Amino acid sequence: MTQQSVTTPDKLDAAVLKVAGVVVLGAIMSILDVTVVSVALPTFQSEFDASYARVAWTMTGYTLALATVIPLSGWAADRFGTKRLYMVALALFTIGSGLCATADTIGELIGFRVLQGLGGGMLMPLGMTIMTRAAGPHRIGRLMAVLGIPMLLGPIGGPILGGWLIDVASWQWIFLINLPIGVVALVYAQLALPKDAPEPSESFDFLGMLMLSPGLALFLYGVSSLPEAGTFADAKVWVPMLVGGALVVAFVLYSFKPRHPLLDLRLFTNRNLTIASVTLFVFIIAFMGAGLLFPSYFLQVRGESTLTAGLLMAPQGLGAMVTMPIAGTLADRVPVGRTVPFALALIILGFFSFTQVDPQTSYWLLCGSLFVMGLGMGGTMMPIMTSALRTLQAQDVARGSTLVNILQQIGGSIGAAVMSVILTNELNGSRPVPGLLDPSGKPVTEAGLAIAAQQQPPQVPVDPSLIQRGLDFAAGAFATTFWVAFALVLLTLIPAALLPRRRQPKPLLDAEQAEQVQTPVIIH
Q1: Mind spelling out the 3-state secondary structure of 321-346?
Q2: By residue range, what is the domain housing residue 152?
Q3: Which of 255, 382, 436, 453 could form a disulfide with 261 if both were Cys (CB 3.0 to 4.6 A apart)?
């Protein structure tokens, strides 16, 4: 082992870079698809005549599917081989993308997005496993730098690409663009990836998966049905919430029994992991949930094109690009308890402007706020993940990484569902326009008419004061929703204050242990 570490070059050689090319292609597809869809949600509303809470399931279903397959990927990679499984994941993602473009109803689109997420959820963890095996653990830092490219470019390029495709073609093209990339990636993977050598692995907790995944989906479906039903007393709301909540509770109680549970909740006996996980979970609910609404404000209240909305979101990605490398360097030198609260303060400072939005809020102010939030974002997630995993023993790192990544996806799903429900409920409170009904026979509200008029000017004359009143109300609905998210980000400061403020001891890993540890991966 010592001889190998001496003879293995530190730089990433051509063979490793060839493998890295396959992984980066898959990562670009997976990460871009999350951010591309964020600017398409209002388009889905108009195309499928659905509420925002309903179309938000195109994101919620995707992230729930990611959470489902993350723990499955490690077990399946050992059982079937990484190359074979990676190509299956690419094929699933590509086929799901093609099917999304054929959807005729919002229900079909949500279903196809789930299929797409089942493939996308395996691409990043499998890709990191493949690259770690190809390059060796002593070059993980350089590997993360390579994988950091799509992670940094995704939040910038995704909304711009999605907006451009919707403007010049149609919403179907945000999915169709994945088809040629997927085919190239499949051929590339077949030629570049080393041959599989499957080996026996630990048992997989199928029973746990059958409780957790449907439980979360049912609970969130009940929450998302609230604006349409109007009351918790409706069976469409309380039945799935009750059944889903019972399944989640049953999973928590059951998860302490198996030797290899789907989520090893016993790891929460580690104080650092618990504090970091709670901080990350609350933060993701607030920031990711509200993040989906930023482009919707530009589209629906300000009447911008999808391309312009994507460009207006770019400062957030640029801010993250500035601080993420700095945060990665500081994470090894400065305790996260001294850096993360400062990064959260930047997010809070930038976020406040969005709680004050109206139909005329300055774009300079909002873009500057997004840049400041991006600065904070780049200094938040990676250090928290580092804190969560740093003090775990070697044999616990893979399970800890799985636990934190799944919590991240669940938090994103809850955030998307909850924020969309709050926004939809607020918009539904607008006054109806006398004598005006939508195609389903429901009264059209002033806010609904104003939002529609921003994208498609009405065929008949409409009182400008009515449009302005509707826009004022819609902006207020967004501001109220942002206030809820802002309060949750403030709440994140409480667990963040408990993060380690002293240098943490690191468990000693010898070379053989390091080879066996699955590298933690942040899935965006």
Answers
A1: HHHHHHHHHHHCCCCHHHHHHHHHHH
A2: 10-194
A3: 255
Res 369 pLDDT > 60:
yes
Residues 187 and 297 in one domain: no
Helix and strand numbers, DSSP H then E, in the chain = 23, 2
Residues 30 and 171 in one domain: yes
Residues 88 and 46 in one domain: yes
* CA atoms 420, 227, 438, 430: torsion sign: negative
Helix (H, G, I), strand (E, B) or coil at 308: helix
pLDDT in tens, 422-470: 888 888 888 887 777 666 667 778 787 778 777 666 655 677 788 888 8
510: in domain: no
**What string of DSSP letters covers 93-136?**
HHHHHHHHTT--SHHHHHHHHHHHHHHHHHHHHHHHHHHHHHH-
Q: DSSP alpha helices (H): ranges in 268-305?
A: 271-291, 293-296
Phi-psi region of 230 (alpha: psi -120 to 50; beta: other; left: phi over 0): left
* Residue type for position 269: T
Q: What is the CATH number of the domain that holds 92?
A: 1.20.1250.20
- The residue written with tokens 């010592």 in the block is 2
Single out the residue of 29, 40, 8, 19 nearest to residue 305, CA to CA. Answer: 40
Phi, psi at 435, each rounded to 5°? 80, 5
Residue 395's CB: how many other CB atoms inside 10 A? Answer: 11
Please tell me whether residues 400 and 286 are part of one structural domain.
yes
